[in-house]
Design a protein that fits this description.
The chain is an all-alpha fold. The chain has two domains: 16-208, Growth Hormone, Chain: A, CATH 1.20.1250; 220-421, Up-down Bundle (Growth Hormone, Chain: A). Helices cover 84% and strands 0% of the residues. The N and C termini lie far apart (44 Å).
């Protein structure tokens, strides 16, 4: 264990200054978003809106990302990453500040669009920036550090959000966990978001690749192959959108938790994500990419059912932790699997398409779930999610499993691609 720790410390020290500044930026952004996200849905309910409107607001950023990811990837070529990151911080801070202070329906929706635009700018900048600021030997460590810091910040943010809200309530509102206490926490998150600007401003980065190369990458894509590779994960995204954006509401209303207890429960989810990211490569080495994804997704289904229908707090929290661990263990495996079906020149294109379409399906199901919860509570959304997970896992198995022979446990993307032709 000591040797592993020393290796990570040495790897971090070897990173370029730009990469380390981006890691600091990632931590602060994730911390601010987690503090804000834990209480925002609860705040919207407190100021008098219904779950249907929560569904509308929750779906808008994803729809905006879906609409902007590809055009923004093409239009921002030639703009240094530092400027894009600062623009993302500025847009996000403005959106969060507006959503904390303005209560009218239409402005809240417009601010959701602004927040989605900020997220789109961040999404198209992060991975290319890290790739260009790391050597082949440094890249895996850099991506792992970025994932770990993001989840660690989300863990800290969920805990802090609960404590902050409880503190604001005790300090200013006689212990009442009402809308104003939530607003204090939302405004604190805005200050944390602004703090990220300092890290972004220090990044000295070259411009994005030439626009003609990007357009060529989009034009050369095999659309049929892209459809088959992306579809199982898009179905997973639709199912996840039914439940995951509402997890705080599910725990709060289903078990009448105080805000501090809710913060603790929600803080466990980022820890599960971190553990999942660690076990993914371990299983891939033993059974291969496709079998690893099938195992993770299939095993998550009974835990998802336990979450939705146990009716007891401790089994529900433990099941939520296990489901989050398993599904997030599958995500980095899928990312490598997806890119492995396309040449490097098309990675930017397929990533942009995946970001756009995944956010579209996720946002659509988030919007639908808000409506369904008005009539059926969480019962029907959980059933839809279980069905999506099962169907996507079956599709992955039928389409790709035979292309990954059992005697090639770590069969690479080339073998998988051969089976698709």
């Amino acid at each position: 264990m000591t040797d592993i720790f020393k290796n990570y410390v040495a790897a971090y020290k070897a990173l370029r200054l730009n990469a380390r500044r981006f890691l600091a930026f990632t931590f602060l952004i994730s911390l601010a978003q987690s503090v804000f996200g834990l209480v925002f849905n609860l705040y919207i309910l407190k100021i008098g809106y219904t779950m249907d409107f929560v569904g509308v607001l929750s779906s808008i950023p994803g729809l905006t990302i879906a609409a902007l990811a590809i055009p923004m990837a093409l239009l921002t070529t030639g703009i240094p990453a530092r400027k894009l990151l600062l623009a993302s911080v500025g847009l996000s801070t403005a959106a969060m500040l507006g959503m904390a202070l303005i209560t009218a329906r239409v402005p809240l929706m417009l601010l959701g669009v602004l927040n989605g635009a900020a997220a789109a700018a961040m999404a198209i900048t992060a991975f290319p920036l890290m790739a260009r600021n790391s050597s082949e030997g440094e890249r895996q460590h850099l991506f792992s550090f970025q994932f770990a810091l993001g989840t660690a910040a989300a863990f800290a943010g969920s805990l802090a959000s609960g404590w902050l809200t409880k503190g604001w309530a005790a300090l200013l509102f006689s212990g009442d966990e009402g809308a104003l206490a939530y607003r204090g926490t939302l405004l604190t998150a805005c200050l944390l978001m602004l703090a990220a600007a300092g890290s972004a401003a220090g990044i000295k980065e070259a411009a994005f690749p030439d626009a003609k190369k990007e357009a060529g990458a989009f034009g050369g894509l095999n659309i049929t192959k892209a459809f088959h590779v992306l579809l199982p994960q898009l179905i997973i995204g639709f199912g996840a959108g039914m439940i995951m954006p509402y997890l705080n509401v599910f725990f709060k209303t289903g078990f009448t938790l105080g805000i501090a207890s809710l913060g603790f429960c929600m803080s466990l989810m980022p820890l599960a994500m971190a553990f999942g990211g660690l076990i993914g490569p371990w299983l891939v080495k033993r059974v291969g990419q496709v079998r690893a994804m099938i195992a993770f997704q299939g095993l998550s289904i009974p835990f998802l059912a336990t979450m939705g229908f146990s009716g007891f707090l401790i089994p529900t929290v433990l099941a939520a932790f296990a489901r989050t661990l398993l599904m997030n263990a599958s995500w980095p495996v899928y990312s490598v699997f997806m890119l492995g079906h396309f040449p490097p020149a098309q990675h930017q294109a397929i990533s942009s398409i995946y970001t756009a379409v995944w956010n579209l399906t996720f946002a659509a199901s988030t919007r639908l779930s808000g409506r369904l919860q008005m009539d059926f509570g969480f019962t029907l959304p959980f059933l839809v999610t279980i069905t999506c997970y099962a169907f996507a896992t079956l599709m992955l198995s039928r389409r790709f499993l035979r292309a990954e022979p059992a005697n090639k446990k770590a069969a690479g993307p080339a073998a998988l691609e051969e089976g698709m032709e």
